[in-house]
């Protein structure tokens, strides 16, 4: 009996060890192991300098699959040090029905997970987050994600109409970013505000977040085309746009001639991602923007903490779907 108990004890220890060190080999870029799903490893284990995380269209998680929402933010919090996560994006449709308090409360609870571990994040309202029939469209969004929630966050730069829009300033590994957000219902006033903000920080890498900007076809939506012409083109520090709303994922890369000498000076990476039409409202897939500062590159990957799985549509087989490489300015 004593021998049997010893064998059981040893087997239990081995299983526990394998569970804690739950990695699955190298990624498609050949750089390092999968992030941990169970614990917060040391930063030195990651082959990247830091990782920005991008969530979008979490509406079905708030409605039907809160455990998936929880798995996403728990994973981000657990990997804060391992991946060196300084910031998280959310590009809207936080809930599915703007007037459903239970959905807002789930979103409120789970986004607080990031706050508790001091990971700054930005968020905007999609069309499902506002009352489209009311003149006070943003009442519920402001209640849960208005300016007062974020104004003590060190990265918080300023608000437009109680967080209908806002901007954050992030510096990591000598890379200076301005993250600009504008929620649903963009018109001239909103565009003017974005341009004023960008003009104040011309030396910051600008990443712009909207809900509706790029179609699944890779073309601009009507408002996306207006934003491109009036914001992206004239502001030389804009490197990328992030958006959701439409089912699927796509990337459109524009080469812009800023000094009008007939040669491209800048690439702008316009990305759309929204997996809500897949099983379980998207199965927890989110974008990881993994930065290598010495290469001036961001390696964009698509990962599910819920499934512990990457989407592996490679840049060669499906350009712009799940994996993109963004070139940062020198």
Task: Give your account of this protein's structure.
- This protein is α/β, with parallel strands linked by helices and 330 residues long.
- The protein has a single domain (2-327), classed as Purple Acid Phosphatase, chain A, domain 2 (4-Layer Sandwich), CATH 3.60.21.
- Helix content is 27%, strand content 26%.
- The protein contains 8 helices and 14 strands.
- The protein has helices spanning 2-20, 59-63, 66-78, 101-116, 139-145, 147-150, 188-200, 222-232, and strands at 50-55, 87-90, 121-123, 156-160, 165-172, 175-182, 205-209, 238-243, 248-256, 266-274, 285-292, 297-304, 309-310, 324-327.
- Strands 1, 2, 3, 11, 12, 13 and 14 form a 7-stranded mixed sheet that branches.
- The protein starts with a helix and ends with a strand.
Q: What is the count of structural domains?
A: 1
- Report helical residue fraction: 25-40%
Report on the biggest sheet: 7 strands, mixed
SS class: alpha/beta
> Which series of helices and strands comes N to C?
HEHHEHEHHEEEHEHEEEEEEE
Tally the helices: 8
CATH architecture: 4-Layer Sandwich
Q: Give the low-confidence spans.
A: 4-34, 36-43
Q: Proportion of β residues?
A: 25-35%
Per CATH, what is the topology? Purple Acid Phosphatase, chain A, domain 2
Instruction: Kindly provide the radius of gyration, computed on alpha-carbon positions and rounded to a whole number of angstroms.
Output: 20 Å
The beta-strand count equals 14
- Per CATH, the superfamily is Metallo-dependent phosphatases
| Through-space gap between termini | 68 Å
Shape: globular
CATH class bucket: Alpha Beta
The overall pLDDT, averaged over residues, is: 88
């Amino acid at each position: 009996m004593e021998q049997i108990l010893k064998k059981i004890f040893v087997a239990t220890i081995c299983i526990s060890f394998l569970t804690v060190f739950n990695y699955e080999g190298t990624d498609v870029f050949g750089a390092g192991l999968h992030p941990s799903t169970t614990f917060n490893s040391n930063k030195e284990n990651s082959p990247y300098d830091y990782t920005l995380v991008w969530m979008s269209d979490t509406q079905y998680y708030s409605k039907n699959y809160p455990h998936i929402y929880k798995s996403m933010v728990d994973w981000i919090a657990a990997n804060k040090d391992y991946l060196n996560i300084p910031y998280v994006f959310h590009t809207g449709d936080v809930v599915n029905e703007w007037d459903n308090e239970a959905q807002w409360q789930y979103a409120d609870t789970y986004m607080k997970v990031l706050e508790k571990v001091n990971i700054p994040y930005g968020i905007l309202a999609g069309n499902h987050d506002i009352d489209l029939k009311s003149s006070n469209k943003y009442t519920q969004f402001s209640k849960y994600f208005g300016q007062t929630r974020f104004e003590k966050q060190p990265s918080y730069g300023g608000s437009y109409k109680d967080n209908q829009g806002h901007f954050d300033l992030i510096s990591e590994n000598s890379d200076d970013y301005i993250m600009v957000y504008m929620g649903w219902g963009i018109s001239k006033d909103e565009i003017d505000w974005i341009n004023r903000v960008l003009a104040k920080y011309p030396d910051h890498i600008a990443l712009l977040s909207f809900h509706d900007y790029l179609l699944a076809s890779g073309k601009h939506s009507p408002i996306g085309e207006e934003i491109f012409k009036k914001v992206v083109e004239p502001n030389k520090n804009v490197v990328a746009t992030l958006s959701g709303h439409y089912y699927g994922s796509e990337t459109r890369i524009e080469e812009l001639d800023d000094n009008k000498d007939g040669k491209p000076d800048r690439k702008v990476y316009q990305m759309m991602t929204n997996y809500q039409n897949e099983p379980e409202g998207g199965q927890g897939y989110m974008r990881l923007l993994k930065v290598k500062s010495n290469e001036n590159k961001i390696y964009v990957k698509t990962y599910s903490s819920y499934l512990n799985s990457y989407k592996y549509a490679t840049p060669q087989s499906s350009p712009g779907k799940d994996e993109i490489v963004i070139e940062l300015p020198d």
